[in-house]
Amino acid sequence: MSFLFATEAQFQRLVDFEGARRHHLEKDRTKKDKRMPLPEAVDRFVQDGDILAETGFSYVRAPLQAYYEIMRQGKKDLVGIGSPMSNCSFFMSTGCMHSIHQSYIGVEMRGNDKSFSRIIKNKKAEILSVWSHGSMAQGFKAAQLGAPFIASRQLLGTDIISNNPYVKVIDNPVGNDNRPVCLIPALFPDVCIIHVQKADRYGNAVIEGPAINDLALSAACRKVIITAEKIVSEQAIRENSAASIPFWYVDAVVEMPYGALPGCCPGHYYWAREWWEELVRIATPDEEKLKQYFKHWIYDSKDQYEFIEKLGGIRFLDEARRQMEAAQLFIDDSLVSFDYEEVKPS
Hints:
Blueprint: H1 8-13, H2 17-26, H3 38-45, E1 51-53, H4 64-72, E2 78-81, H5 88-93, E3 97-102, H6 114-121, E4 126-130, H7 133-145, E5 149-152, E6 168-171, E7 180-185, E8 191-199, E9 205-206, H8 214-220, E10 223-231, H9 234-238, E11 244-245, E12 252-255, H10 273-283, H11 287-299, H12 304-311, H13 313-329
Parallel strand pairs: 1-2, 1-8, 2-3, 3-4, 8-10, 10-12
Antiparallel strand pairs: 5-7, 6-7, 8-9, 9-11
Helix pairs in contact: 7-8, 12-13
């Protein structure tokens, strides 16, 4: 396989089982205060050329404000991976990411992401391998379990295998059927940023709601940054029975209220639907409009608070909170409105 942007080392590091094992064994597991500002965490733990794993579910509990800090710092030559991985398109459009291991990119509720199609067609970025949602998730799970691979029938009957140099097909060595199985290798991205509802200063973190692949990724990735709506005591984490991430996987903890905006964070706020509609339907079809959109919202906003002011400030936050409560608790629709006027091109 030829590499237009990714290096051979980047390509092989994703499945370097022994190298990842050594890294995790050598990782500092002492309990210490890991809190730091977001710019410092991104500067220290997201390096040019890293394989960056997307977390959350597209725009649900995704660390979007941290992703915007990556863009503002001008990180380069990142390689994207994730299941799903809808935000890789925006890293590519801003020059931060040049290669991806693709499972899924899409925003059907708002239309098609024309920027992604344009970038791939113009060869400004490269697809290194193609996966299904399930097969990539199995790769992360294998890494979490410490297994070099998982035998699966996920990809059989598709042409994905022909576009994936990592997956091998063998006859099933167990049982009597001798039917073929896919060997899905353990996947070890370099870094991920996981947004959570609660974390303590050491990195113990609680995800309320679906964890998607984030528990597996916290174990698989060589470096893990936690952004949290709220920093709480260690005891508060211990008393919580929700899915959690232990501190020894975590390198940095950032207190980041509203860190998932303009996406949503279960239990806290609904997503800014108008923002996404304007981005996807109006900005992504035109490269210059997309640059202007990101300049206004990302590069000209130093943090989430300036971003929120542009969304509408406290009025927006109050409405987003009410909408989240209505969506989660099934409050009478007549009490909370989800309507808004269609976004018009400026």
